[in-house]
Amino acid sequence: MKGISSRALVWGLLLYACHTPDTPARFGFGRPASQAEIDSQNISIRPDGAGLPAGSGNFAAGRSIFQAKCASCHGPTGAEPTPNRLVAAFGDTVKAKTIGNYWPYATTIFDYIRRAMPFNAPGSLTNEEVYHLTAFLLCSNKIIDSTTVIDARSLPRIVMPAKQYYVNDDRKGGNEVK
Q: For the Cytochrome c domain, which residue ranges apply (predicted)?
């Protein structure tokens, strides 16, 4: 086998062994996931708002939730110079990448909070709590005012200050991400 490395030969033999007629259709363990199980894990929110759940949120309720569940990592207001700073209005001279000066879509704030926060219990917040926290953070970053109520219809309409600096990747000919 001139010109074939031993590693390529081993991989080729493994692939051949896995695709023989003797390979069983099932290995006797596991089961198909139910639609409810799939839906519980399929919680992605797109930038256009597709996937946002029912619910709504406001600044005042969000501030209370933030104090109880977020301040230990992000500081009392989120504007403190911690490694996890969240608040700095667009044009602020801080170097930290915050919601106000870096994030391109308001909907992805909701998505990230729901999926990854709080750090010690990710995914434990209700959709209402996530809407309230999103409203609190958008207001704290001077993107919406304190009386604005956000929901699945209004959140995708919020234009983030940094959105203009993002460029869509429209390259072709490879593994396109859409």
A: 57-141
pLDDT at 159: 96
Residues in the chain: 178
For residue 28, give the 3-state DSSP assignment.
coil
What domains are defined for the chain?
A: 45-165 (1.10.760.10)
CA neighbours closer than 13 Å in the CB half-sphere of residue 113? 28
Contact of 98 with 86, CB cutoff 8 Å = yes
What confidence category does residue 168 fall into, taking pLDDT thresholds of 50, 70 and 90? Answer: confident
Phi, psi at 150, each rounded to 5°: -105, 150
- Please indicate, yes or no, whether the overall pTM of this predicted structure exceeds 0.90: no
Rounded CA-CA distance 85/80 in Å is 6
For tokens 């009386």, the residue is 147
Peptide bond just before 118 cis, omega within 30 deg: yes
What is the token pair recorded at 176? Answer: 């396109």
